[in-house]
Amino acid sequence: MASVTIRHVTKAFGESVVIRDFDETIKDGEFVTLLGPSGCGKTTMLRMIAGFDQPTSGEIYIGERLVCGGKTFVPPEKRGIGMVFQSYAVWPHMNVFDNVAYPLTIRRLPKEEIRSKVERVLEVTHLTRYAGRFPAEMSGGQQQRVALARALAAEPELLLLDEPLSNLDAKLRESMRFEIKELQKRLGMTVIYVTHDQTEAMAMSDRIFVVNRGGVQQSGTPEEIYHHPCSPFVADFLGKIDFFKGEAGGGKIVLTEMDHQSIPYDGPLTGKVDVAVRPENLQIDPAGTLSGRLETKYYLGDVSDFRVRAGSEQVRVIAPGAAFPDLAEGQEVRFSIREFLVYEDDGSLEEMLQIRS
Fold first, then answer.
1. H or E element that contains 355
2. Burial of 261 (0-12, 13-18, 19+ CB in 10 A)
3. Same domain? 223 vs 330
4. d(CA 329, CA 297)
5. CATH assignment at residue 121
6. Is 108 in the same domain as 154?
């Protein structure tokens, strides 16, 4: 397997700069996800690693080998990579065995070696009993596994996955996430995965690179990024979160649009701030220091989703499903905030929310 080193890579199409000074290293055997909104540059970065696009400047190494940069350019077929796209791209006129064998066949390997490699990868991907079937006879998830098996058959040093699950239904997507992760751990592969789905990124990744406007906003483990996002954009992109305007000072933050109610704060920021709170860190609490009126209550089985109006703000509170069965819409409630994040109010939140809307 192989590490990937990306050194100060920039990619421009004419006047449009898609990737800006991308400078990261993916370790051997690591599962890294490029996570970001559509058009942020994550697929372009993946295509440059694969060799389908060339950087405008910078260098890319796979292992110790320079594959592009300066006058060096190694074509995709010589980079030792496997790639799976959003579309399954399996050959409809070939059965599963022949689809998986295709990259080995065009390399003109001996028939017995091809058979041995294909049988092994079919077993690993749980496709052995489907070897004689054609794609039209298979489900979407099975076809996606065929595309994955075909990428693995050539024993790549590096596996690149570009939103491979986005065409599947929700239940199948969930099961395939765990299948891919288990496969990666079993084979010790280095994987770079592109998605805009935060749940996929959280469930599968050793590290996440949050990408926006062609650059990495933050990189770290799912836990690090979820609990310590460096900006409102990262906080908003990874998980459910609400933002409230505040004024920090004197050991508290006054929530200006929440009827000037306040919460304790001993952090370094003063003046105008943006307070970010995840719904699971709010709780209905008879002894809570904040108050509002229950507008709506949604029972979702395992949880109840409350929306509380406090001043001009609507506060979202997630509670266990069986909690507070007697609360009725229109009732005054008290609530508390267990954890929150504070950012300087520099206008970036308004810009982000405007783009999102």
1. helix 348-356
2. middle
3. no
4. 7
5. 3.40.50.300
6. yes
Task: Confirm if 274 and 245 have CB atoms less than 8 A apart.
Answer: yes
Q: ∠ CA 162-165-166 to the nearest 5 degrees? A: 90
Minimal CA–CA distance to 95: which of 40, 135, 67, 139?
Answer: 135
pLDDT tens-place string over residues 278-294: 988 999 998 999 999 99
Per-residue confidence at 38, pLDDT binned at 50, 70, 90?
confident
* pLDDT of 153 above 60: yes
Q: Average pLDDT over the chain, rounded to whole?
A: 91
Which of 216, 236, 256 finishes a domain? 236
Residue type for 223, please? E
Neighbours of 186 (CB within 10 A): 9
Residue 321, pLDDT above cutoff 70: yes
Instruction: Return the CATH number at 318.
Output: 2.40.50.140
315-345 burial code (b ≥16 CB/10 A, e <16): bbbbbeeeebeeeeeeeebebbbeebbbbeb
Same domain for 280 and 201: no
Q: When comparing pLDDT for 155 and 329, which is higher?
A: 329
233 with 217: CB under 8 angstroms? yes
Residue where a domain terminates, one of 213, 236, 259: 236
Asked whether residue 206 falls in the same domain as residue 134, the answer is yes
Mind listing the pLDDT tens digit for each residue in 53-67? Answer: 999 999 999 999 999
Q: Are residues 246 and 202 in the same domain?
A: no
Give yes or no: residues 212 and 271 share one domain: no
Same domain, 137 and 201: yes
- Strands of the sheet containing 341-344, edge to edge, are 261-264, 252-255, 242-249, 271-277, 341-344
What is the number of structural domains in the chain? 2
Question: CA 290 to CA 75: how far, in whole Å?
Answer: 61
pLDDT attached to residue 356 = 56
- Domain span at residue 272 reads 241-356
Distance CA 39, CA 236 (A): 17
CA of residue 212 relative to chain centroid, distance:
12
